Please model this.
Amino acid sequence: MQAYICTACGTQYPPSAAPAERCAICQDERQFVPVAGQGWTTLERLRIGHLNAYREHEPQLIGIGTQPVFAIGQRALLIVTPEGNVLWDCISLLDAATITLVKALGGLKAIAISHPHFYTTMEEWAGAFDAPVYLNAADRKWIVRSHSRLKFWDGPTHELAPGITLIRCGGHFAGGSALHWAQGAAGRGVLLSADMATVNMDRKSFTFMRSYPNMIPLSAAQVQAIAAALAPFAFDRVYSHFFDRVIETGAKEILMNSVARYVAALQGAYETN
Model:
């Protein structure tokens, strides 16, 4: 029996004699089935041709991403604190080097995941570090492999540790969340936004989508709700879901300006040259 992993989105399914015919995540309008069709792999196979790479984005914040890129290609973020370490989002590959590194840094107090596209192999990560996995209750139906370490949170926010707060944004998914780290950016505050608010390629603006690969926009009300959810939190820097999607400073003002631009475009008031 193998726990098969979808090669398009990286989601791991329960052990079975053969892979499923379809991936429920990829059948949804926010994701897609590749032209070549549904593909599957296993963690054992993935470890043969891939490895995890690491980047210290700033003191106490380490990015973990798979090379060469697998599935969606996001990277996880490890926040190292005296009160315990938190892993934000998951990637499919969990290898021996990653386990050794994270344990050497003190293990994990908690794992928190922004939305179902990044659930990936969360059971493997939870088991390796004996850590609970925090998911927003609104996205419970997207779990394809349930396990005993799942912890569901509800409401607008949930504090994981002092200065580390989960924020429900909605939009991309009903329970789509960001993480606020008050001590980040030398105390100016950091937001880990995943793709609830995606840093654009110019690293000077944000975008907001229901589906990124299929380019399905959000409504003005949904984007304004994201802004309202994040407004109470102070942050100067934002890390989105890829290694290079970072706004180093002035990120909150840039976010609010991006929301205003998005809403103006939907209302037909955005001027072009």
